[in-house]
């Protein structure tokens, strides 16, 4: 056809990557409609003057735009119309990908996408928005596609996190039930949120959840075989940057799977956008089978690389958590420019508020800013003083560009860093924090004795007993001990299952009081006994036999001796610790009754 518009090969060559990125951004915008039925389709802005552009289009062309054939796009009318757009529409002739069928995603019709000038794309998409192509039925269908019926997002409680879990992808989204146990493993010691107020994250980190769920790095590398990397221990407060740590193909696959995963989670990704950081976070198990999990499979090479890099740092004391963090800074979401304010991943001074176990931070970028997009640099304030929270004392400020396959390592306690606001692109990275036990860990004397791993093998009842013991000799001021926290979590999960019928060590039904068996509360009270005498013991705890108890210093002494004894027994008996703890608690309760 003589008046057909032909594609300019030069334009194609230059615009290929940009077109793909633009398509991704456009699809992300439409995702808002999928996630929220209340959003009118035409409220998604595509261009500065959408109404006018749409009117202009409909003044010339009356065809239906829901499903288009190639020849419909190359007519003389279109050519004239597009010629008028020069100077009126920004980037009017930029190569842009158009979906032939509005009902389907880019992926669904990957082979058949049209390459059209930007102005043409805009007019067609604006018409689709305004003419019902993205109506309720379309949204429902897209939702169904994103979330197969067999894999609904559901709220689950595990011993570790309270999470939204997508069964098909085995990644876990944090942030649904922040009040109880959200542990997004991102404790921040020096963020804008204020030093006084401890975040859920910080609390989770302080309680050592990460430490209870990790393996020595050599073991991690054994479990996830991968060739040696160039990773080395970062020193002198400066980050180590290694390019090409992961090949482009692996990055592209991982990135696409991550974006699909986050898109599938929709608005449920994160309950509330936090002020100091704008990313969406999911936790991906580092180890285990890949089958049945597209996301985990796609992240396989990245997970192996991180585990290997952790081992290559060469510090035998380093531990690798069982989960890596997948973070999306979605610059295409709600016109936000998400970033992360200046912070350190661990307290710069040992013992300071917010301290956790992070020693080395590993960041693996799965993509970089596409041409024309900007932001998202990792800003590092090298040499900033430990008390400096905003980088004023930095000797050097380096902006490290995210790039597919780029691995960055830095000392978690030392490097003050930020993520610069991300422009119109979707930045995807996988992070892993290598942990190190804190000498004389104030959090958990029992952990020192049993080892953090023990918590994985103890059932709720055992943990509760250990918790009770830990409370007796644990350091109160810092909050719950490790096992106390673990016990609470397991017990509250159990609550739904067994409202009755779970027996405490002395054969009584657990009386659930604020989700925790009341005998634990008795022990708390017991522990809290001060020099002043007081009455204690919830009357209902022992039902008909309700009794009270007058606390005395000498009993406190007695308990302390008993606890020391238990500690000793645990130490020498190893795995039989549980029995001894049982005996100890039984004894405590017996004593208490006798006293009465
Ligand atoms: O993604 C990055 O570049 C850094 C993210 C970060 O600082 C964090 O998650 O703690
Ligand atoms: Fe960080």
Describe the model:
It comes from Pelagomonas calceolata. One of its GO terms (cellular component) is cytoplasm. GO terms for molecular function: dioxygenase activity; iron ion binding; L-ascorbic acid binding; oxidoreductase activity, acting on paired donors, with incorporation or reduction of molecular oxygen. The chain has 3 domains: 9-146, yst0336 like domain (yst0336 like fold); 153-435, q2cbj1_9rhob like domain (Jelly Rolls, Sandwich); 445-595, no CATH class. Helix content is 36%, strand content 16%. The protein has helices spanning 9-35, 50-60, 76-85, 118-130, 136-146, 200-206, 217-223, 248-265, 294-298, 300-312, 445-450, 454-457, 460-473, 482-497, 518-527, 553-573, 577-595, and strands spanning 95-98, 114-117, 153-157, 162-166, 171-174, 214-216, 240-242, 280-285, 319-321, 323-330, 340-343, 358-365, 378-382, 396-400, 407-411, 416-419, 426-435, 512-513, 516-517, 535-536, 549-550. The model is unreliable at 1-5, 147-208, 268-273, 440-457, 472-483, 494-552 and 562-578 (pLDDT under 50). Residues 343, 345, 417 line the site of fe (ii) ion.
Poorly predicted regions are 1-5, 147-208, 268-273, 440-457, 472-483, 494-552, 562-578
Number of domains: 3
CATH homologous superfamily of the largest domain, by name? q2cbj1_9rhob like domain
Give the DSSP E fraction (strand runs of 2 or more residues).
Answer: 15-25%
Helix content: 25-40%
Question: What is the CATH class name of the largest domain?
Answer: Mainly Beta
Q: What is the structural class?
A: alpha+beta
Q: How can the largest sheet be summarized?
A: 9 strands, antiparallel
First-last Cα distance: 102 Å
CATH fold call of the largest domain: Jelly Rolls
Averaged pLDDT, please? 68
Counting DSSP E segments of at least 2 residues, the number of strands comes to 21
Number of helices: 17
Strand order of the largest sheet: 3-4-5-8-10-17-12-15-7
Shape: elongated
Architecture (CATH level 2) name of the largest domain:
Sandwich
